[in-house]
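To: structure subgroup
Subject: Chain for Friday's discussion

All,

I'm putting the inputs and outputs inline so they're searchable in the archive.
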Amino acid sequence: TSGAANAKGKILLATVKGDVHDIGKNIVSVILQCNNYEIIDLGVMVPYEKILEAARAEKVDAIGLSGLITPSLEEMVVVVAELERAGFDVPVLIGGATTSKMHTAVKIAPAYSGGPVVYVTDASRAVGVAQSLLGSKDPAGYIAEVANEYDEIRTRFHERRTEGRLHPLERARQLAPALDWGEAPPPPPFIGIRALRDFDLADLVPRIDWTPFFRTWELTGTYPSILDDAKQGEAARGLFDDAVAMLGRVVAEIWLLGDAVVGFFAANSDGDDVEIYTDESRAEILMTLPFLRQQMEKTKGRSNLCLADFIAPKGSGVADHIGLFAVTTGHGIEIKRAGFLAHKNDYDDILLQALADRLAEAFAEKLHEMVRRELWAYAPSESLSNDDIIKEKYAGIRPAPGYPACPDHSLKPMIFELLDAHGNARMQLTENFAMLPAASVAGFYFAHPGSRYFGVGRVGKDQVSDYARRRGIPIAQAESWLAANLAYER
């Protein structure tokens, strides 16, 4: 918390319940403090009760809610509905990677009438929004402008909902791609799990993709050309020098530890499900992974994809396999962060979090390369540059829950259970399926050369009810997990 008697206003910031990511929120906090706002930062995984209690006790002028994973979108609606019930009348600011102006206008704003709900695109806009709401002579004008814009967005959204044409689920399934199972990958050398504890982070440094690192700091451009950019080059170079210097210390002084676990299992598809078997006899199902299929109408000749399409069907006679993985480079980060924050060193705190995230992605990249070349060895002679790897020029894919091909985060507990990620990599999940440590990645390996990334997009009620049936859960639960992909109003 930072405060000043002559602050322009007091703003409470919180990452909502079930979510652990706060780099963006921390950057917003620093920028607002530099512009003389008093910030009450409640941290991560904050339940609505704590937000309401602090907002009331501190008599805040505005509340900022942040979240990275899609379940946080649902959680934000819960928070503003509770603010409404408690009679709050302060503005609410919404931000984070999965949030959008559309979702804010359509889902969050209608649940709160006490004050304006405003989507903040990125940290650099936070000051402008705060000034318009708290510092301007005419906040009513700005609030009316936002309200009108959000009304238009809602109207357009409801009109468009009926436009995007979907196939019935059965028709979408008929349009599944026909893969050549003669190209099925060889069986992995072992079935089961392998843990990699305390992995040498020096091996990950060459695999870092730096472009998203600059995006974290709201510098847009591609590495390395961003370093010579006419407008952003100077800032990018300074930031990069600091990052490389800190990265050297992270590796040399072992600030962070990396753990991973990888598993290969006998598997075949059954419709849109992938059955994982206890052993190669395939007599007993260990777990069934449910996947979603694209339903959008496409131009003739284009398939409606589902991840299950990339595993050989049960009746094909092909003994196929699936891989799963979980990696983290976040062990030890909390100790270092506490040291930085004790010295009010926000910059190094954010820098370390951003580097830990890059190292986790680099670990996922490195492990996938080890899988292709050695562990599964379906591409033993692969020889790709880091650029080629970043451009995904390798065989096979590694989709993760929460990403376009598998938008449902609730598959993460299945991965964690199959791999014993808690025991093997010291990783945990929050109730909303965020991974702890925050610098973590988990997902699946599909090795067939015909497998590719795609986005599921909007799904119809027929698929949602089918998905709920396949998972043995109420439809309302499936709708909650798939809220961001629904093609209809709940």
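Points worth raising on Friday:
The first strand starts at residue 10 and ends at 15.
The chain is about 40% helix and 15% strand.

D.
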